[in-house]
Write a structure and sequence with these properties.
The protein has 16 helices and 16 strands. With 706 residues, the chain is of the alpha+beta class.
């Protein structure tokens, strides 16, 4: 800013005050104040703040240059006068344009009549549909024949390969037959094959017979052992039978003697004893069944008592767990994080005791609301880490303004509280406080300050953007002029288009149209639209990257390069179409290479010296490109008059499209610490060996090198 009166020439020598007294806002400003400001601005270098008549200026460490086509007054009144003059000129131009439009309308009507006549004549001409269809069918048949030829060639190659394989297999078979002593004839091999088959069948029959023989021998041995054991048991049984027969005879004799001596009374006694025995057996069976039922009942009663005790313990543990969960849930609600996660949820006062049923209903509501949230270990670890990172960013940002950020851990839960404006707040409270503070500061921003900001954006930023965009469009025109003046050998025509990108800000088209005009010709609505557009970019960048500083935000927000994108178009059927459409490999290489060569040529053309070097360096030039496309690309380098230095593993560059080339072939061998350099020369027709002095003189003449 201007300070005291400068020593030496000042702007007061070439500028004079011209205050619009009709402007109420300028009524309090006097001519002396304006002269004092002009006296504080140096006219040329030498003062802290100065401007020069050639457009250069400096303000402290800042500096730059700018110019206008004509002199003019400074201020809102001057801009309004210039706008009115511009509007008057535009009205005259509009009248002339309207008269021209009327003349063009008359010509258009005449052309319409001629077009109707031509259309009628065209309708009377026979249609060429049949001829076009015949051409299409013929082209299809030619294409089919080429495909069949290719398939026939492939089939011949496959047949040759199979014949080679058969020959190799026959040689290997003959060699194997001679090694093992087998015949090579078909009939002899058939006999051998039949004999081998019979041998295999004999072996197959021998193995089951051997297994059956072994099994039979094992069964015979086991049967002999079993027979020996049976004979031993039979002898023992015979001895026991002889003893039993003797005892039976003795018992029968005793029974006979007792029956003869006892009589009928003994028979009745035996009958009663038998009845008593049966009764006792029945009672014992009934008693055994009753005791079994008693034992089962006692076991069932013990199991029931155990189940009841276990259920009582589980109920008590569940009640304790529920009370503990309610206490933990109430403690978590006391941290305030529940209100942060679900702002609209009605949460009871954590300072009071919570009943079990309402707490369970509240927990179920929270679970239903947060059902879509992933509660796995991985997301939890990432959230914990992110909370720590965000806490550091928040702490750094708040500490710069004298506020502090605390972080406490309650039962594994991180709670962040901020001391802001003397009060402890949570994060939502801080957001509300910051929003209130922002609104308050926005209200404090006066209309005069907003006007200064708008004028800065319009007068300086918009002016700079106008110069940069105009320079970029001029550069694109230079490149397209290079492309037009240097056609390719294939006749393909390309051009570069610098247009708004797909993700360009809204309203960029209108702003670009206004930036093509002078700022003095803008109306109030135009100035407001441009200023609003620039302010929207700054506000969006500030909202997207709040941690970054104003310098970084303004740099990204006002970067006009991100608003635009380059596109390559190709002239096809009289229309410019995108060069990314269907094309051959060579055309795609040319479409990618020609604009780059044109850009380099336009850049070197800015030197203003036709003898200045136009150097381009290419490493592994045109890798993966066929020879025809390589020749065309190297021919383009000669067409654009570029001096190229390139390296390649296989490219020599000896094509008719290249008028001259100096080549250095490098060779080395393992174990030898040296590189052999062999110079060559290409004159457009043949390649010959060259000596190093000739190579150096060729380099001085600006030839191509590899």
């Amino acid at each position: 800013m201007a300070g005291e009166t400068v020593q030496g020439p000042s702007c007061a020598l070439v500028l004079r005050p011209a205050i619009d007294r009709a402007d109420p806002g300028a009524a309090a400003l006097g001519d002396e104040a304006v002269r004092a400001v002009l006296a504080g601005l140096g006219l040329g270098p030498g003062a802290p703040t100065w401007v020069a008549v050639d457009g250069r200026w400096a303000n402290g460490v800042l500096g730059g240059s700018w110019h206008k086509d004509g002199a003019g007054f400074i201020g809102e009144g001057a801009r309004e006068a210039a706008r009115r003059a511009r509007v008057a000129r535009l009205r005259d131009d509009l009248a002339q344009t309207r008269s021209r439009i009327a003349a063009l309308v008359a010509e258009l009507e005449e052309l319409s009549a001629r077009r109707e006549t031509l259309a009628a004549e065209h309708r009377r001409v026979p249609r060429d549909t049949d001829l076009r269809e015949a051409h299409v069918r013929l082209a299809g048949e030619h294409r089919r024949r080429r495909e069949l030829d290719i398939e026939h060639t492939r089939a011949d190659e496959v047949a040759k390969q199979r014949r080679d394989e058969v020959t190799a297999a026959a040689e290997r078979a003959a060699e194997f037959a001679s090694d093992v002593g087998l015949p090579t004839g078909e009939s002899a091999l058939a006999d051998v094959r039949e004999a081998v088959t019979g041998y295999r069948l004999a072996l197959a029959e021998l193995w089951p017979a051997a297994q059956a023989l072994s099994s039979a021998q094992e069964a015979a041995r086991e049967a002999a052992e079993e027979l020996e054991r049976v004979r031993e048991r039979l002898a023992e049984a015979a001895e026991r039978a002889t003893e039993a027969r003797g005892q039976a005879d003795t018992a029968a004799e005793r029974h006979r003697a007792l029956v003869e001596t006892a009589g009928a009374a003994v028979d009745e006694l035996f009958r009663q004893l038998e009845q008593v025995r049966l009764t006792l057996e029945t009672r014992e069976h009934a008693e055994s069944a009753a005791r079994g039922r008693e034992r089962s009942a006692l076991e069932e009663r013990g199991k029931a008592q155990g189940t009841r005790d276990r259920l009582l313990d589980e109920i008590a543990a569940a009640v304790d767990a529920r009370d503990e969960a309610v206490a933990v849930f109430r403690a978590f609600a006391a941290t305030g994080l529940l209100s942060v996660a679900l702002p609209g949820l009605d949460v009871p006062d954590p300072a009071l005791e919570w009943a079990a049923s309402p707490a369970v209903l509240l927990a179920r509501s929270v679970n239903a609301e947060l059902d879509a949230v992933d509660d796995g270990d991985g997301p939890w670890d990432r959230v914990q880490k992110r909370v720590a990172e965000e806490h550091k960013l928040l702490s750094d940002a708040m500490s710069r303004h004298g506020h502090s950020v605390g972080l406490t851990l309650h039962d594994g839960i991180i709670v962040v509280d901020i001391l802001f404006q003397g009060r402890s707040r949570d994060v939502p409270g801080l957001a509300n406080a910051l929003e209130t503070e922002t609104e308050h500061r926005a209200r404090l921003l006066s209309a005069r300050e907003r006007e200064i900001l708008e004028n800065h954006l319009l007068n300086e930023v918009a002016g700079t953007l106008q110069e940069l965009i105009a320079a970029a469009e001029d550069e694109v025109r230079e490149m397209n002029a290079e492309l037009t003046s240097r056609p390719t050998s294939t006749g393909m025509r390309l051009r570069l288009v610098w247009k708004p990108a797909k993700d360009a800000p809204d309203g960029l088209e209108r702003v670009r149209e206004k930036l093509r005009q002078t700022i003095d010709a803008w109306s109030v609505d135009d100035r407001a639209a441009v200023g609003r557009f620039l302010q929207e970019q700054i506000a969006r960048e500030h909202a997207d990257n709040p941690p970054s500083g104003w310098t970084e935000q303004l740099t990204r927000a006002l970067d006009y390069r991100s608003w635009h994108a380059f596109a390559i178009q190709r002239l096809q059927d009289g229309q410019w179409r995108p060069a990314t459409g269907p094309a051959s490999g060579g055309e795609r290489v040319l479409a990618a290479s020609v604009p780059l060569f044109a850009a380099a040529s336009a850049h070197y053309k800015s030197a203003g010296n036709p003898h200045a070097p136009r150097l381009v360096a290419l490493d592994e030039a045109f890798a993966g490109v066929d020879d025809d496309s390589r020749a065309k690309c190297l021919g383009l380098l000669a067409t654009f008059d570029m001096d190229v230095v390139m390296t390649s593993e296989r490219e020599w560059g000896c094509y008719p499209q290249v008028p001259g080339l100096s080549i250095c072939q490098l060779s080395r061998r393992d174990g030898i610490d040296a590189v052999l350099v062999t110079p060559w020369r290409w004159d457009g027709r043949e390649r010959v060996r060259a000596d190093l002095p000739e190579l150096e003189s060729a380099a001085g003449q600006g030839d191509l090198f590899e």
